[in-house]
Every structure is written in C-alpha cells, then in structure tokens.
Amino acid sequence: MCSSFDDSARADGALGTSPTRRALWNLRSSEVATIACPTCGAARRAPCRTLWDRPTTVLHRGRTIRYVKMRFALDLAEPHERPVRHRAAPPLSGPGLTAAPAPHPQPWRLPLHELADLVNVSFLDLAKVVTAHACGLQRTGLDELLFGPDRIEQSIDALTYAMHDRQIRREVRVLSGGRPEEIEDLAAQERAVRERLRNTERRLKRQRIAELTAAGILPFPAPTDDSRRLARAWLGRYLPDEKEALVRRLAAGKGLAPLATVHIRSIPEKITRCIDNGWLAAPVTDAVHQLLELDGLAFRRRIVADAAQQDARDDALCHPLVLNRWRDQLTETLAEMAPSAENAHTKHLHDLTLTSRPRSDAQLRRLHNRRRLFAVLLQRRSESVRLITSLNDGMSLAERHDPSYELLKQAGDQAYDELVRRHPDLYRHIRNHLARYETRYGRLQLAEPRGQLRARIYDELDQMRPAHLASPARR
Ligand SMILES: [Zn+2]
Fold it and tell me: Annotated region Disordered: where (predicted)?
C-alpha cells in the first residue's frame, strides 16, 4: 500500500517544507518552554498543564506560536493560503541562534527524541508523520509517541487534516485530468489515513470509557424501579427551590464551602464553578475575556482566521468557556459555506468526483480553495466536539474525586427525606399514583414514558395546592 509515499510527500507542496518554515526544524521544546504559556499559565521552564492540571509533554500551540513569533517574527500561514509572492527566507543568524540543520524531507527518520520535539512544535510535520505511519511505516516507540495519552487527540486532528488534504488533491487531479498513477497513489494514502483515523478514534473512545469506568462514573445507573425512590425524586423535582435551599443548608452543616454547593443552572456556570474550585486548570486570561465579548460577526471572523492556518492556532478558542460557542459558530459557518464548496451537507467532506461536471481551470481553482477552507472548518468542528467531550468527562471526574462529592450526595439524600417529611400529602399522592404500576410492593413497571407520567402527576399536584404555590417545574 502507498508504495510511493516518500516521493509524493517530497513533491507535495502543501505538506512539504518551505523557506519560511525552516526555522521550525531548529526549534526545541525546551526553548519554547523558556516563555510562560499564554494558554495554561505554566511558568517559564515549566511543562504545560492539561485541563486537569497534570503536566504534559505536549506544548500548547499558543506557547509555541508566541515563542516562534517572538524569536523569528515568522509568517506561519499555510503554503496554499499564502499569496503567490516569493519572499526571501528570514535571516536565521543572530545572537543565541544555533546553526539550523537542513530540513529533513522524511522527519520520521529522525532520532525519536528529535522527532518528539519536532511534532511538538510543528503540526504539519506531525501530519506528515501520522500519514507515513498510516501508510505502513513502523518504528519502535512511534506508536506510543503518536497515540499515547498526551498526543492522541493531536494525532487525530493531524490525521483528519491529512485525510482531507489527500482527498482534495485527488479531486483536483481527477477533475483536471491528472496522471492515473498519481491519482491512485493519493487514493491509497487517503484510504490508509481514513482507516487509521477511525481506528484511533475508537482507541480514544476505549481510553475514555476505561477512565470513566475506573472512576465509577460508568456505567450510568439504570433508572430506578423503586417507587419510593422515584416518588422522592419527583417530589424534589417538583419543589426545586425548596430542595436546593435544603441541600445548601445541610451541606453547610457538614462543613462544605458555599462554592462547592452552588446550584448549577447552565453549562458556563458549571465550568466556572469547576475553574473556581480549582478542578479545571483553565485561567480566564485577557485573551479569553476579549473572545467572550466579541459580537457574532467578529467571532466568526476570528474562527475563519484560525481555520486559515494549521501551524498557528488560536488556543483561546479551546478555552472551556468558549468551546460551545466555537462549535455552534463552526456549524453555522459550515452550513452557509456548503453550497459554494459544493458539499451537499456539513457532516463530512463528500467525494466531489462522484458528481463532477465540466469546469474551467479558474473555476476549479476557486472551488478548490473553498473546499480547503470548508475542510479545515470540518476539522476544527471535530476538534471542538472532542474537546467538549473531554471537558465534560473531566468535570465529572473532578467532581467525583473531590471530597465534597460524597458529602454533597449525603446532603442531597437527606434533603429528599426532609421534603417527604414536610410535604406528606404531595408525597403520598405521587406514591398512590405510582402504585397503579407496581408489579409487587415497591417495584415499578411503567407502561408509558416517565416524562409523560410525571407531567400528569405534576398537574394533579398543582390542583392540590393554592395557585400561587404551583411548582416552577410546571411554569
Ligand atoms: Zn500551556
């Protein structure tokens, strides 16, 4: 498979080396680490921290970019996004600079520690290496380097990029009448990368499930068939304000800080609580504040600007408080762009050659550019969805591991019992209604969706109480 991978990688403009990227070859993670990280706040010379505040061998891209810009004042735009204007390479001699080795056309042949450093600082080189690996390259330690817990998500991102890249280049060659061998090579690489991507996504999912299972979060408990527990839970849901006040009072009695018992009404509130409690390491920097305050149009410009470059990423978009907006805006932008990119939907990049019609060279070039941008937006959306998933996992894990979790659970349990004591009539009414569905004492077998039954019971409870006491759960 992919026998001529090396040749086509060398001939490949989009993934090849270019004068303006030469400096990256001489960059070391240890040099990047001499500046503080603008993303995670890691101090100078300290490793970056994950969202769960663990040290990671991966550098935040924002840190690398800031370092590179400071040191070389480089233009890091993608080769295919750059205006066709040949500029001289930036001067690389100067105080503190070591001699730059010539760019390696096959980075996967570098000593492993150099390779680890390279993929740390250069996304496009990571893309080259994961592609070579997908096409059959084997090497001791490479699998762990690319798909170990530190880098698996970046490698998935790089595989997504490489898959789109091969597909679009194949499409262009098919539509403009390229050489059949070249087209077959690109198609083979595309297939290999696609398969590796799917495998790696499954691997990531297995890792998540193992971690959540070890923490006791998975499997989710089945809905209770105990009518006493269900009646208690529905009473609490019917009287949410009273229940929350009780939980807070009982939790305070157990010595829990108010911060740990704040009732959460929205996702941003939940994230903020996790940051405030120190469960997530995600400093809300000036860059994040500015991003949060942008209006729709300015935010849109920001995500398109980020999509226009692969090696220089906008880390602020990955901040937990920005993630949901980023994903939603990406989806909207994709929907608007789909017709001009000739993509029937926004789920993935469909194969243009299956519905080809004649086009002039100029039309083809324009379409090619649109599809490049469309593909990157798809890649970014996948990234945002992965980040949201891991954020949610992380918040669940953090809550679960915090000492407040068990105490809060006890407080919740006691609050339900107290509500039953305070409102025996309401509780009894729910129990009596549920009794119709009991197969034996206390065991339920519901014949209709729970939500429907609950709504009917809440209507009846409202009628039992004065109008001004109707539950906010029903409003
Ligand atoms: Zn960092």
Answer: 83-102
Predicted confidence (pLDDT) at residue 18 exceeds the cutoff of 50:
no
Centre of ligand 1 to C-alpha 31, Å, is 14
Cα 60 to ligand 1 centroid, rounded to whole Å: 4
Long-range contacts of 33-39 (CB under 8 A, 24+ apart): 33/59, 33/63, 34/67, 35/63, 35/66, 35/67, 35/70, 36/63, 37/62, 37/63, 38/62, 38/63, 38/66, 38/285, 38/287, 38/315, 39/63, 39/315, 39/316, 39/318
| 218-222: average pLDDT | 88
pLDDT at 445 over 60: yes
143 pLDDT band (50/70/90 cuts)? Answer: very high
CA 58 / ligand 1 centre spacing (Å): 8
Cα separation, 135 vs 139, whole angstroms: 13
In this predicted structure, what is the pLDDT of residue 181? Answer: 96
Ligand 1 centre and the CA of 49: distance in Å? Answer: 6
> What is the CA(214)–ligand 1 centre distance, in A?
27
To which residue do tokens 């990368």 refer?
A: 193
- Rounded-to-integer distance, Cα 300 and Cα 308, Å: 12
Ligand 1 centroid to 379 CA: how many Å?
Answer: 22
At 84 the pLDDT is 42
Question: Which pLDDT score is estimated for 75?
Answer: 54
Ligand 1 centroid, distance to 36 Cα (angstroms): 8
How far, in Å, is the centroid of ligand 1 from the Cα of 29?
Answer: 12
- Whole-number Å distance, alpha carbon 449 to ligand 1 midpoint, is 47
Per-domain residue ranges of the chain: 5-85+92-214, 227-263+404-469, 286-401
Looking at residue 153, its pLDDT comes to 94
pLDDT (0 to 100) of residue 79? 39
Distance 281 CA to ligand 1 centre (A): 10
3 state DSSP class of 62: helix
